[in-house]
Structures are given as C-alpha cells and as structure tokens.
Amino acid sequence: MTSPIPQPPGLPLLGNVKDVDPSNTWWSLKTLADKYGEIFQIKALGHKIVFIASAALAQEICDEKRFRKYVGGPIVEIRYTVHDALFTAFDHEENWGIAHRIMAPLLSKESVANHFDEILLCTQELINKWKSQDPNTKFQPLKDLNNLNLEATALTLLGKKLGCINSPQEHPVIQAMEDATSEAMKRPNRPKLLNWLVYGGKFKRATKTLRGFAAECVSYRKENPTDRHDLLWALMNSTDPETGKQLTDEQVIDEIISMPIGSSTAPCALTSLVYYLIQNPQVVVKAREELNTVIGPDGELKHEHLSQLDYIQGIVRETLRLSNAAPGFNIEPIPGTTGPVLLQGGKYQIAHNQPMIIVLAAVNRDPTVFESPLEFKPERMMGEDFERLPAGVKKWFGNGKRACIGKNWAWDFLMVVTARLIGEIDFEGAVGEGWGEKTDGWFNVRFIDFWVKAKGRV
Ligand code: HEM
C-alpha cells in the first residue's frame, strides 16, 4: 500500500502559491520540510513538484540507474546567460560532454594543488585586511568573503588578478551574479509577459556584465600570452579527446561565467563557518591545538598539511552539512521509464516524469542519521565516523555525472581559508544587528544581516 505524499492545503485554483515565498524559496522549503517530513509536494501554476527531505530518499533518487539531473525551472532560465554550459546543459546536449572532458583535468585534485600558493596569497590578503582594521568595526563577513572567492577564482582558474579584496567597492560581477540568479529563480513563477516587460532589462544588464567580464578575461589572455596551463588555457586551446572538437568563442564565455557562479557557494559556506566558530569556542580551541601539532606554532601552511588536518576537515564537512550553501538539486526518473515510479520499496509512488528537488537543509539534518542534528560537531565528520554515514547525507557537491566539477577547488579553498582564519583571527558576534540564523539566497543560501567583529591574534 502506498502512502499519499503530503501536500499543504493551498487555495482553490491557485494551489500552493502562498506556501512558497518567491523572494526566499529555500527558507520556505526548509519550513515545509520541518512540518511535513521526509517527502512532500506542492502544486502551483499547473505544475507539481515533489520535495525530498530525508537521507534515505535522497540516497535512493541519487541512483543513476533510475534517475538523472532534471534541467527545469530556474536552471532553464539561467540559460539566457550561459546557454548550454556545464551546469545548465540538458542531458542530450553534446556540449556538456565536450566541455566536461576539456575542463575536468584542470580541476582534478592534482591540478588544483598547483594553485595552493595563489589561494593562500588571496586568503592572506583578506586576513591582513581584517587584522589591520579597528577591532570594534562591525562588518558583514559575506561581503569580504565574496570578494576573496571571486579574486581566488579569477586568479587561479583565469590567471587574472582583479584586486577586489582591498577594494572599497564590491566587484560588479558579484551584483550581476546576484541579479541574474535571483531573476532565474523568480521567472518560472511569473507570467511570461511580466518577465519580458518589467524584469527583462535587469536580466539583460546582469548577463551583459557577466559576459563582458568573461570576454575581458579572454582578451587579457590574448594580449598577455603566458605558458600557464590553467583552466582558461584549456577552454581556449584544448581539444576534446573523444570528438576532437574545441569550444567555440561563445562556449568559452559560457563556461567562464559558470566558474564564479558555481564558486559563489563557497563564501556562503565560509560565512556559516564564522557563525559556527563563534557559537562553539571549544571547536576553535581544538582546531588551534591541531594546527600547532601539525604545522607548529610558527610554521607555514603547506598543501601537504591539508590531508593531515583531520579535525579541520571535520569542521569543513560539518560546515557544508549545516550551511547547505548549495541548497539542493533537481532529479527526475530516467526517461523511458513506464508506469509509476515506486520509492522506498513502494511506500510512495510518483509519476514516471515527476521532477523532484532534494532539500539539503532537511536531508543534512535528518534526525534518523544525526543525533542532535542542529549541533555543530566536527567529530562526527572525521575518519571512520564520516565513512560510516549514509551516502544521502554527503551530497553537498551534488551527485554522479552532474556533481560539482569544482569540488576539488572548493575543498582546498575551504580548507585553506578555514585553517588560516582559525589560526589568525578571533571573531565575535556583533549582536544587536540582526545577528542570527535566518538565511536567504538563490542558487546558494547565506545568512541575512550577519555582522561580526574580527581581531587578529597576537
Ligand atoms: C562550497 C562550494 C560548492 C558547493 C557546495 C557546490 C555544489 C554544487 C552542487 C550541489 C552541484 C550540482 C548541481 C545540480 O545537480 O544541479 C554543483 C555543480 C556544479 N558546480 Fe559546484 N559547488 C561548489 C563550488 C564550485 C566551484 C568552486 C565551481 C567552479 C570552480 C563550481 C562549479 C560547478 C559547475 C560548473 C557545476 C555543474 C556541473 C555539471 O553539471 O557538469 N562549483 N555544485
């Protein structure tokens, strides 16, 4: 006997439009998951979407023999900006494979390790900035971390120094990413005419800024030839070993833009990290002991240390779990499946073409997997304890073929920034300015109104 999939009551004709706030979709979904549990559905504007909120169900629908990435809604909308780039390509599009095979070797663990010094240099620049400012200054760490992330992404993958860490202004690419992704999230829920007449201009301007930035990176490389074999070099010169094809000029731009959009998730995770460190001073003490043991009190962080910093690895994983900085991903049954699809051995039943969204805020806090799921406990993310966790709660970088191509870069970046911040900075919450756990976001989620003070350690 299958159980019905719970659905909020909704309104006649309009369905569940009121259950999801279009300006804070992921917060609404987290709230619905808290209320309805492991699976629920909403119906609006003639569409039904099923949401997955438990580790067991997430694990089941990550089985690539039965399911695949669903390219729909906001992902289709952002194709206006990046066309059939890696993140947005439909399964049948040949360019996904061509771009993947050209790019993946430059984002392997080994290739990313070659960028360690550049990541460290950018991180040090931010640490120096925070150390030199008045320790009573209240600031939003997300803004500085966004700049750090963009700087490090551009320097390592595109070989271009932007100089945005110490700049008083936010780099225009950051606002353009916010505008393009927020538009992409909102458009599926608005009438087409309204999208075109009222909001089309914003989408167009943001896209122009992003494509202009990418085109500048290409021109800069052409005007400043180098023997650097970085990602930009591969995008501009490599040939796909399978088809013998190269990327067109347009495709190079599409893929360049996808890099800062993808990596913009990392500063959201790091902002959460700052929050969890402030809330858990005992974690900071333990991490500093580890840094002392592995690197020594006056030693310099080296790439080989990253794999020895077990506790800091636990901190990074626990941050990825609780921050759910990439808030979810879309799945559908593999086409050709006939008849209804059964989940959990027949407990639930969905249509053969039913889109589903994994809500990581719920999956990563599944109480059947984690004791005290809201607590920040790096220990459970270390060694054998981490290995023993079910695969469904380790999906912060997505799944299978369409998992994050930047995961090695993100891992090294998060490890370096975490180790250096813990080693060098004492944070304090600037309570009284909306300091708390409420989040918002589009393709990523981050704290709203999160202010801190930072003091360099002597
Ligand atoms: C904390 C950091 C990051 C997290 C949590 C994260 C998470 C994810 C997730 C969940 C997906 C799967 C999306 C889906 O199935 O629709 C994904 C895909 C992707 N990510 Fe990341 N990501 C991070 C950093 C990065 C970085 C640094 C880059 C680029 C340098 C990047 C580029 C991409 C791209 C291009 C895809 C699409 C891959 C494909 O479909 O072939 N991400 N990421």
Automatic annotation (TrEMBL):
PROSITE patterns the UniProt entry points to: CYTOCHROME_P450
MF term (GO), any: oxidoreductase activity, acting on paired donors, with incorporation or reduction of molecular oxygen
Keywords (A to Z) from UniProt: Electron transport, FAD, Flavoprotein, FMN, Heme, Iron, Metal-binding, Monooxygenase, NADP, Oxidoreductase, Transport
Pfam families given in the database record: p450
Xref: InterPro entries: Cyt_P450 (IPR001128), Cyt_P450_CS (IPR017972), Cyt_P450_E_grp-I (IPR002401), Cyt_P450_sf (IPR036396), Cytochrome_P450_monoxygenase (IPR050121)
Needed co-factor(s): FAD; FMN; heme
Family according to the record: Belongs to the cytochrome P450 family. In the N-terminal section; belongs to the cytochrome P450 family.
Name used for this protein in its record: Cytochrome P450
Biological source species: Podospora fimiseda
